[in-house]
Specification:
- The chain is mainly alpha-helical and 266 residues long.
- The chain has a domain of 183 residues: Orthogonal Bundle (MetI-like fold).
- It contains twelve helices and no strands.
- Helix 2 packs across helix 12.
- The two termini are 44 Å apart.
Length: 266
């Protein structure tokens, strides 16, 4: 019992991880499945055809391409705007700062159906009700991604020691040099994390996208549509690829951090 009590936290952590990764394991397994019927979602026969021909349904690849395009565009714009807002909130004092900190959390705390319907009402009132599509989706994604970027980058900036910037200025670095050579490298991990989070949220979003998409079909909307007549196994291929890319990014970042720590130790 003593041995078990000393390791109970480890066991609970392993159970939580197993519970979390079981659905992902099912998606990976189904990406190699050749079902007898698209109406029955079970593993029948191993095959590589799904990976060799991921675009058996051209409309799926088109939907994936639109989701990636929108996700990357929304990530770039939201990361730039959100990072600037985070720097302003952390490094400067101005009237309404506390109110702004509260407002930043509202899009995160609001249900997606409220956010989506509000954006739809905004577009209709602005005269874009008959032009819903790529651009309205992009604007909607930027608007709800900015809050996540601000919160993530602000948390990183709040933990930075400003004495490093003061030391750089004491060594005759001007404000521009101090920012790009000291501040930005220190804040970059938070900015990169915010960008990855924004892309994940944008690529995965369904409710807000569905309300403001018009006739444009993104990958989540495609999956929702085909689920009514049987999900093709290539959908699992896309899910597996996105998961593997995420793992490679995280592992690559961790390896790079360890190399940097070893270099500093030497």
């Amino acid at each position: 019992m003593r041995w078990f009590r000393e390791r109970i936290v480890l066991f609970l952590g392993i159970l939580v991880l197993v519970y979390t990764f079981v659905p992902i394991a099912v998606v990976v397994l189904m990406s190699f499945n050749q079902p007898k019927s698209r109406l029955v979602y079970r593993f029948d026969k191993f095959t590589l055809a799904n990976w060799l021909h991921p675009c058996a349904d051209p409309s799926m690849c088109q939907a994936v391409g639109k989701s990636i395009t929108i996700g990357l565009s929304a990530t770039v714009v939201a990361t730039i705007l959100g990072s600037m807002m985070a720097f302003a909130l952390v490094r400067h004092e101005f009237a309404g700062r506390s109110t702004m900190n509260l407002i930043i959390f509202l899009p995160m705390a609001s249900p997606e159906i409220v956010m989506g319907s509000s954006l739809l009402a905004l577009f209709v009132a602005a005269g874009f009700g008959g032009q819903l599509g790529f651009w309205t989706i992009l604007i909607a994604h930027i608007m709800f991604c900015i809050s996540f970027v601000v919160v993530t980058v602000r948390a990183r900036l709040a933990g930075l020691d400003d004495t490093l910037e003061q030391a750089a200025m004491d060594l005759y670095a001007n404000p521009r040099q101090t920012f790009w050579r000291v501040t930005f490298p220190l804040a970059f991990p938070g900015i990169l994390g915010a960008a990855l989070l924004s892309f994940s949220l944008s690529f995965d979003d369904f409710i807000i996208t569905n309300l403001n998409a018009g006739t444009t079909v993104t990958f989540p909307m495609y999956v929702w549509g085909v689920a009514q007549r049987g999900v093709p196994m290539q959908v699992n291929v896309v899910g597996t690829m996105m998961f593997l890319i995420s793992v490679l990014i995280v592992v690559g970042g961790e390896v790079n951090n360890r190399r940097r720590r070893r270099a500093l130790a030497l």
